[in-house]
Amino acid sequence: MEADVTRFRNEPPANFSLESNRRAMGEALDDGRRHLGGHHPLVIDGKEVTSLTSITSVNPARAHQIIEQCQELALGRPTQP
Q1: 65-68, long-range: CB within 8 Å, 24+ apart, which pairs?
Q2: Confidence grade of residue 20 (pLDDT, cut at 50, 70, 90)
Q3: 27 φ, ψ (degrees, to nearest 5)
Q4: Residue 4 reports pLDDT greater than 80
Q5: Is residue 74 in some structural domain?
Q6: Is residue 15 included in any domain, yes or no?
Q7: Containing domain of residue 69, as a range?
Q8: Number of independent structural domains in the chain
Q9: Under DSSP, is residue 7 helix (H, G, I), strand (E, B) or coil?
Q10: What distance in Å separates the CA atoms of residue 45 and residue 1, rounded to the nearest whole number?
Q11: What are the E-state strand segments in the chain?
C-alpha cells in the first residue's frame, strides 16, 4: 500500500454569493461526512498491521460523532498482522 501524498497549498478564497460555489462546498461537506467513522490500520514496511489498541477521534462539538479510529502502537507491544 503506497500513500498518495501531495504538497499542501491553501485554496483561494471562494465567493459564496455564487450558487455554484455554495453547491460545490455542500457537495464537499457531504463527501467528507461519508468518510466519517473510518478505521485506519498502521502501515509498517508496506504491510497493514492491526494493534491491540486504537485511538478514537471524536467531534468535540458532537461527542457522539466518531471522526475516525486509528491504530495505536507503542514499542514493545504486540500487534496482529
Answers
A1: 65/36, 66/36, 66/37, 67/36, 67/37, 68/36, 68/37, 68/38, 68/39, 68/40
A2: very high
A3: -65, -40
A4: no
A5: yes
A6: no
A7: 36-80
A8: 1
A9: coil
A10: 9
A11: 38-40, 42-44, 47-51, 53-59, 62-72, 79-80
- Nine-digit cell at 48? 497493514
Q: Are strands 47-51 and 42-44 parallel, antiparallel or unpaired?
A: antiparallel
Q: What are residue 54's DSSP bridge partners?
A: 71
- Per-residue pLDDT reduced to its tens digit, 28-80: 999 988 888 888 888 888 888 878 888 899 999 998 989 998 888 776 655 55
Between CA 74 and CA 12 the distance in angstroms is 40
Q: Are 42 and 73 in contact (CB under 8 A)?
A: yes
63 within a domain of the structure (yes/no)? yes
pTM across the whole model? 0.53
How many whole angstroms separate alpha carbon 61 and alpha carbon 35? 18
Domain-located, residue 70:
yes
